[in-house]
Fold each of these.
Amino acid sequence: MPLPARPLARAPGGEARLSRQPRSQRSRLRLARRRPRLPLAATMPNSVLWAVDLFGRVYTLSTAGQYWELCKDAQLEFKRVSATTQCCWGIACDNQVYVYVCASDVPIRRREEAYENQRWNPVGGFCEKLLLSDRWLWSDVSGLQHRPLDGVALPSPHWEWESDWYVDENFGGEPTEKGGWTYAIDFPATYTRDKKWNSCVRRRKWIRYRRYKSRDIWAKIPSKDDPKELPDPFNDLSVGGWEIMEEPVGRLSVWAVSLQGRVWYREDVSHSNPEGSSWSLLDTPGEVVQISCGPHDLLWATLWEGQALVREGINRSNPKGSSWSIVEPPGSENGIMHVSVGVSVVWAVTKDRKVWGIGCEDRAVYFRQGVTPSELSGKTWKAIVVARECDRSHSGSSSSLLSAGCFFGDEVRGSGESAPSDTDASSEIERPGPGQPLPAEPLDDSRNPTGSLASGPGAGRTTEDTVEDACPAKSGREARLDTHPGQASTLAELPWTNIDLKEPKKVPSHSAASFPETNSLSSLGILPLGLEEPYGADDHPLWAWVSAGGCAVEACAVPRWFTVQAGLSPSVQTLSLSITPAQTAAWRKQIFQQLTERTKRELENFRHYEQAVEQSVWVKTGALQWWCDWKPHKWLDVRVALEQFTGHDGARDSILFIYYVVHEEKKYIHMFLNEVTALVPVLNETKHSFALYTPERTRQRWPVRLAAATEQDMNDWLALLSLSCCESRKVQGRPSPQAIWSVTCKGDIFVSEPSLDLEAHEHPLPCDQMFWRQMGGHLRVVEANSRGVVWGLGYDHTAWVYTGGYGGGCFQGLASSTSNIYTQSDVKCVHIYENQRWNPVTGYTSRGLPTDRYMWSDASGLQECTKAGTKPPSLQWAWVSDWFVDFSVPGGTDQEGWQYASDFPASYHGSKTMKDFVRRRCWARKCKLVTSGPWLEVAPIALRDVSIIPESPSAEGSGHSIALWAISDKGDVLCRLGVSELNPAGSSWLHVGTDQPFMSISIGACYQVWAVARDGSAFYRGSVYPSQPAGDCWYHIPPPPRQRLKQVSVGQTSVYALDDNGNLWYRQGITPSYPQGSSWEHVSNNVCRVSVGPLDQVWVIASKVQGSHSLSRGTVCHRTGVQPHEPKGQGWDYGIGGGWDHISVRANATRGPRSSSQEQEPSAPPEAYGPICC
Amino acid sequence: MHYPIGLLFDLLASSSALPWNITVHFKSFPEKDLLHCPSKDAIEAHFMSCMKEADALKHKSQVINEMQKKDHKQLWMGLQNDRFDQFWAINRKLMEYPAEENGFRYIPFRIYQTTTERPFIQKLFRPVAADGQLHTLGDLLKEVCPSAVAPEDGEKKNQVMIHGIEPMLETPLQWLSEHLSYPDNFLHISIIPQPTD
């Protein structure tokens, strides 16, 4: 008897809450429709540069764009801005501080909690009468603070309540029922879910969410602090520190300087609290005029007297730092006027207008690296210059083409070098060399009054120089911006100051020095030449301040800010050859037409002529290394030959011969390429190798492994062998919409065309015979559906959408499609462990016992891994950060990241106890890979999981958009709107509120949405329909006893979940009227990933599979015997394996040919396999 | 001089009826007019020297010199075996140019005319003009062989043939060089009189 569907989480006055939620979502829907997003914004990874012009107006320039856009909230005039990726702080002309939080599909929400406490009383049972010694009736979690529900107020007018208060019925992953009460013997005690005979007190948690509403507008930071404390207005402000603490906290350090020269720190600024809580004053040794904060722990300020101050002791637990130390200016007579810092670099401008750079290698020693203007101006400078004065003049003449604000004038091109090539060269020059301070040399050009300064975090670089004589305005100030090749992903901060002669009062810079007035006027005189300006003719941007804190510029992809888009620039034109058919149509079309005609004329009529020469065999040979089949296994030098022959029917086939010598005897093995099922690159730090699988080799868990001398050589072989395999199997072009996608642990993507009998009821195709071919790109997760929508997630949580191309990566030339291949990048961390042992004399040291593991090791302790000796995973990867302590390891850590244990191979915990004799901590270092593939980024929200609705081909043409759900990297549940075959990236996200972060999500063919929360329990989303894509409420489903779930997958009707210990569970008792089901049933262990398809077929990645030759970790497995009346199946069929991490079969709705099982069907209970109709 | 067969057809027989009847001579080699290749190796050497000449124009020989012997072999084997993919896997590199440039240094081309004694015209010609504008086929002809181009209003007297077709004079030369070069990496352009019929 099915139970009626029933919401398990009910708010007080629950109906009100349930009905309110969909309404707010409906209004969001309307909003999304009204404001269609720019396709550019939805597909390009971009970040923005913020700038203030002379009139205090704030503009942004996107790395993907070529136009300065006026800030959406243009009411206020600003004198200073400081930006990060998500927000921008500024000081307006009313001297108040404002924060501008960029709009996003994911709301900023914060939870308020209050506890209701009750004591048992013999007369009335549990009641509100507490003992005098008890806590408040309404309290915080500790019970010490009084916290009545109506006393909890919004912190500022920029917040709004999301809903009313309601009881949290989830207690550690288990639904409590009974109104959410938890019981204990007395108050400061442990609470249990169930009432016992000795339960004298009880409490329950009420929760309510508030939402930050002031997005895309400048929100005034309330100055409700004591007016005595904040007597003078702010003069300078700098935001940084976002690298101190890892995501998802998103903590920021906001520093400000008041007119009286005092330094203030804004407490508690984070992603979820964009405004922070209060200003706190820091003592300084003198009057500070200006401050600059880098993304890491660098904080510099300048004193009125000309010295610089450096804040010391800034770290994760103390973002404010502990003390100041004074740095004398480079020259005693000329003090520092302005500083700007990056990750490991400081730039300073002194009062005599010289620019200084300092590379900081460690906290104690400051290396000073002079900026030699001859080098900067001579080599790095001419190509990528941001010439402001030139902009004035040139934007006058070319603004109609450029639209205002594009910096680069003609003289840039005239210098004969183009932007991208110069980037690398200059980066080489400017890399700070530790221990080799270059002679500091002032800028010697007197025509160029440099008064501004900028810096990037280790990379973002600016400098100033005079423009060549070709430029009419010689008083120009130019700044150059690019990033360090090694740190291409770091954010480049580039604040500029500038000088204005027209309105000196508004200028925030201290550098109002001797600006040659005539020159400036001359340039101003050119201004009126401006013809068409998007913002009006009077509105040439004269910049006063720039902040690039939120702007990431890739060394390999310099934004198109620096070229004139007039068709004059040849690079642009070359690009347009391939992208604008209108321009090229005439001659191009004509050539194709003539070629077609010529072929017809010269060939078609002579098809019946016999070939004069029959060249049927050709051979490619080469020298490779082979991992020999016998023990001891080692790499053996071999000769290989690929013989390709053309059969009579024109079909091609190939044999690969491997010739080797053993005991001075020549031998060979051979493989027919039409039997090869997969070609897998196996890159590591030393070898360029690849593995060839055949069905037999797959069963043995022992592929043929070959290694090439160079990466190029390996890629050539891989591309050729792959092409030959595809030719012999007649696989080409884009994978079909039904294709099965998988990803290896190296991030390589493989795709397989499902044959008709793969899901046949009887004698299905053994899955070791499936042919896998590689797609370019690097992903961690890939999900597909049968309408051709494919999404992938990178290791850095970036979301990617499949473009319909094929090839990319190492597959160049014929193995790759000519269009739809784009640059793709991914970032992951390499982890090593620092191990220490305690001894009674010196405490913990790096001197272990002789039997101990290496003091620097991998996670297992078996391999030595030192900071210096550890290399990126393969030559494709490059380091992009320094080593840092990883605090987010399971088990928790202490303040310094240590984890303690009694002895080494043990479980670690985050705090030291008496019994702990060893400790370890995890160090991580980011590395980055740049490759190419048929993928486009879906910005800006990073995702942890994604699921697309599986559909059977019969459902095609239903018209409505394709349901796609995802979990953000912060654990927010999101529903994508507007996804279709034509627009697989969709248009915008719809946020679905949850009471805790989620980890995994899956949507079934009938809009059943299942998810797994961080506490390991499952949730079912009720009432999801095409017309109501976000559903209405969550139903809490407890996990199997004593297990924490980590993944869920929903097919047509089947629901499978996976727990932390590798057990696979089937949800029993699901019926259309009771979609939550009744219980979990154990199916299998040894599983690390599950994918359930639209035929309810079950595929998993098994963690360990033993073959006849060796063991393979990460093997694709197919559940056999899955029938409508036996959805759990019977056993496993093992397929390709050895390092597979992920599979998605959710696009394959190709049902096998029916045979004898057909007549059984009517007898099966309809509910067991019939879809849950919506 | 050895011309590619397609060029010979365009130049000498484009108006003749197909199939093209060829007379093969086994004696009295015209030693005065043609270089006598004594062996297969000599033909290969001749072909490779054309390739090297083309790359000298395109990349100052940088690309072809960086290749290994086996790559050179693969180019020849690919041509010999009529294996486009084998050939193109290597030839692709010869067709690339640095991203910051907008084309090759010079375009390797030869212009053949039946009406003159001169075997062919070959000069240095850049794919991109000083102002950044891409040069077209028309620009090339105006510069090196003005007689081939009909005056603005004049009657068209000549056909400009590449691979048996007549590309428009507006076609960018760089594109032609990348896509319509012969295997020896030269753009062989035939100027033949307009058929009168």
Note: DSSP finds twelve helices and 70 strands in chain A.
Amino acid sequence: MRPPQSITAVLRTPSSSKSTSRIFTRNAGRKVVASDPQNEILRRSLYPSNIRNKETPTGTWRPDVMKALRRAIPSKQAHETIERAWLLHERHMRWKRNEEAERKFESMRRAMAELEKVDPILFKEANRVEDPRKRTPAEVELSKSLRGAPKKAMESRLPGLFPREMRLPTDTPPREGWVYNWRP
Amino acid sequence: MSASVFVKRCQVGRHEQRLGQNFARSLATHAPQKPRLAVAVVLNRAPIIAKTPTKFERAFYKYQARIQRALHNPFPYDFYFKPGSILEQQFNKEERIRERKAFGKDFVTEESSSSIEVERTDEDEVPAPRRTSADETKDVKDLNRQGSRNLYLLVRDSTNGKDEWRFPKGNVESGELLHEAARKQLTVQCGDNMNTWIVGRRPIGFFEEQSGISTDPLLTEKTFFLKGHIFAGQAQTQDSISDFAWLTKQEIESRVPKDYWLGTKDMLSDL
């Protein structure tokens, strides 16, 4: 989030524009007798006013915004240096990630080239793209003969799709830790 | 294949062809044989927790949070907190602490004389620690170790007098596809007590080495590696493997023979 170049720079929308944002503020300025203050509160938070008659481009700043901003940002040059340092850091991360992806891809490409040389049938089968919706006749037969847990296992792992158990990394690990006593 | 080329160059006549084929058959022992195919599984335990931010990243996030605190849109306090309620007082108290932390102890927004101390009675607030007990003991069999890194299953092979660490490997039967062979070999080698998934049909790498069975220099064994993920369970030592370990990429480098490392390191993740 970047503060504007000059705090006093004003972003005014042209007053004669009939943009669709007007529709959302139709209820904003409505003065209604406060029969139920909760309704008023709700209306104010759901339909904030976007009438730009203040200095701020985004809404009503806190009243001591200049003081707070002076505390937060050491100086304009310092802020720009921090921005550049961050972008540089991001660039380095990106390069590292891309390099690793390239190494992995190259390894895979070499493996597939070798497979094509060694066994063309296996190569062809490896390149086949399976439709997760289709079931081969052999699989249909197999699924009829299975019951219970093996059937569930077969139905849960659809070829070409990610399994449900794949988990996003979180900030802290699960309370119980790794599940060791897993039965097929 | 010099034998087949020879056969093709022979005349069309049947007699000559038969002669040619007999000749080719007699040459068979000297022709390069088909390399044995093996399949191995690079079983990965994906990171459980997010990467620890570096000092620079932490400082930057704090800096951005300060700027946002100074500039953000008005928060609808009266929508979320009923005026005069205890929850509002609690929130205001915590907000003042946060403001002081962001802008300094002498940054005073308003004087508040609320002295009501409200105790937080949240039962399960404390999250599990990022560094687990497995990290302290450095137990390589524990799957809770190194939550932010990728761990790979390495298996110790003590057959035929050799003792080395490698990825679980097995042979491909004729007519079997690579990913099916991988799945089967994984259960054979490491037990079926693991919830695993082989990613797709394509191998991610290959490694060529001398076949351990014969001393023929032309007979090499080509191992194709397939990637797999483990979601639950644990590997079991069987008669084929004497030991196993879940290691990060750097730890694998120290355990595995040099040429094997150079052939397989590109498949593994740094992080």
Note: Residues 55-123 of chain B form one domain.
